[in-house]
Amino acid sequence: MRILLCLCLGLSFAAPALAKPTVFPAPSGNPDAPVLIVYSSLDEPLAAPMIEGFQRQNPDVTVSYEDLLTGEIYDRIVKETDAGQKTADFAFSSAMDLQVKLSNDGYAQRSDLPLSAKWPSWANWRNTAYALTFEPAVFVYHKPSFTTEKPPATRAEFVDYLEHHAKDVHGRIATYDIERSGVGFLFMSRDQEQFTDIWSVIQHMGAAGVKLYSNSSAILERIADGRFVLGYNILGSYAADWASRHPDVGIVLPKDYTVVMSRIGLVPQAANSPELGRKYLEYFMSREGQTILSTRLQIPAVNPDVAGDNTANTMQAIHGAQLLPVPVSLGLMVYLDQVKRNRLIARWNEALRLQ
Hints:
alpha/beta, eight-stranded mixed sheet, seven-stranded mixed sheet, 15 strands, globular
C-alpha cells in the first residue's frame, strides 16, 4: 500500500499540510449540502470506498477529506481548538498515542453510539476514542529463500536463523527505524514490555547489517524481489496487501506473541459539525463500514458482527492469546515523555551497534 507510516511522536509542525482537501460532493447534487470535514492519515484513494459507502446512506452530505501526517492531525486539532476556531468533525489516525492524548487533554468529545456498549473493552476509551482496525506486527519473508526450511516463527527462531545464515543474510534483513516511524516505535516499546530478551534480538539484527526504513512499502518491495530475506515487526495489513499481489512475499504471525495495533477514530471537541462526525464514526463502526474496511481496504475489522478471515474475531479464534492488542488507554502516552522516548531510542541504537 502507499500509506507512509510517518513519524508521529514528539513532533510539532510549523504549518498545516499544503495539499488541498479532496471534496466528495453530495450525491444528491445539493450545492448547499452540509459538509463533513475529515482529517485522516489514510491515503485518500484508500479512503474513497468508505466515503462512498457513507454517502450512499447519507446522499445529502458532502465530504471534505484532508490526507495528513499523523503529527499534522494532532497539531491541527490542538492549534485550531486553542485559537477558538472550528476543526475537523472526524479524526482518524494510526498514531494511537497522539489520539489518546487528544482525548485525555480535552480535545475530543464523547460519542455515545449504538455500538459503544458492545465494542471490545480494549478498543474503547471512555466512548471518546475508538480503535477501528486490528493490525498485527508480523515477520515477512522471501518465499524462494525458504524452500528447504521453514521461516522463523518466534523471536528465538529469528535469532537462530540469523546466527546460522550470517553470510547469506548480511544486509538482507529490515525493520522500521524507530526514530522515524511512529508505528515502529510503538511495536518496539511493546516488545520491550513483552519480551525480556528483546535486546538480544536487536543486537543480532545489528550484527546482520539490518536496514532501517520509515515506511512499509520500501521493505516489502525489497522482500518481494529478493533483495531482502526477512522483515521484522512489519504492519500486517500492508504485508497482506503486498502478498496478495506478489506471490513471493510470505507472512508469519510470531507464535511467541504478536503485537496488534489499531487506527483510532474520534470526534474533536471543537468539531464544526459534531453530529456529522458522530454519524461518520457510527458508519465506520457499523457492519457495512467494517466489511468495506476488511474486504476493500484489506485492513482487519474490529466489529464482532463482521464475518470473514480479515477480522479480529476470526484472528483471535485462530491465534488466541498469541495476539496482544495494544489497549486504547492512557498507557499509550508513556513514551510521549521525551526522557523515556530518548532512553529507549538510545538503547536501541546501542544494541544495533553491538557485534
